[in-house]
Amino acid sequence: MRLLFAEDEADLNRIVTEKLKRSGYSVDSCTDGEAAIAMLDAAEYDGVILDIMMPGTDGYAVLKHLRDVGRQTPVLFLTARDAIADRIRGLDAGANDYLIKPFSMDELLARIRAMTRAVYGLPESRLTAGDLVMDLAARTVTRGGRPIALSAREFALLEYMMHNRNIVLSREKIEDHIWNFDYEGGTNVVDVYISYLRKKIDAGAEHKLIQTVRGSGYVLRADD
What we know:
The chain is an alpha/beta fold. The protein folds into two domains: 2-120, Response regulator (Rossmann fold); 126-220, Winged helix-like DNA-binding domain superfamily/Winged helix DNA-binding domain (Arc Repressor Mutant, subunit A). The chain is 41% helix and 21% strand. The chain has helices at residues 10-22, 33-42, 59-68, 84-92, 105-120, 152-163, 171-178, 189-201; strands spanning 2-6, 26-30, 47-51, 75-79, 97-100, 126-129, 132-135, 140-143, 146-147, 210-213, 217-220. The strands form three sheets. The chain has a five-stranded parallel β-sheet with strand order 2-1-3-4-5, sandwiched between helices. A four-stranded antiparallel β-sheet has the order 6-7-8-9, covered by helices on one side. The radius of gyration is 18 Å and the shape is elongated.
C-alpha cells in the first residue's frame, strides 16, 4: 500500500519513513503541509499519516483540503497534544484515528492496518483468494498450506491485488499504488514483478490466480 507521511521533525520523519518502507509500504514523505497537499493532489494514497502541528499549513488544513475535494482516504493524526478537546477536534474534522507522541512503531503499524481494513470492509488482517491466504499482521503468505516467501515489494503488490481481487488493474494504477515518487526504475517494472509473483504463487497450481487481460492489465481472479 502507498502511504503519505507528513511530519516536520526531520529525525522522526526519517526514522518512521524507513521503518514503514521496511514493513512493506511504499511511502512518500514531506515536512510541511503545503508539500503534503501537493502530493495528495498528484497521487492516490491508501492512507495518510499527518502531524498536526506543522509550520504554515497544519494537519487540520491538510485534512480539510483532502475532504473538500471529496477524497475519503483514511487519515491518522500524530500529535504531542493529548487533550481530549484536541482529539475530538481531529476526529470531528474527518480523521480516522489519532496517535499521541511518543508512540510505539508497532502500535502505529497496527493502527495503519486497522484503518485500512475499515476502508476495505475487512474484519481482520487476513486476505484470502481460493487457497491463497495472506496474513497482513504476521506478513505471511501460504497457498494450499504451502509457505511462500515474498520480498517487501512482492508482498505489497500481492496485497493490492488481493484487496482488488476480480478487478482488472491497469499497469499505471498498479505502479501508482506500489511505487512512490522516488522510484527511478524501468518502465516495465510492473510486468517484472507480476512475473515474480506468478512464479511463486501460481507455479504448479491448476488454477492460475494472476491473469493477464490483454490491453488492460492484470487481475487476481478467484471464484470463492
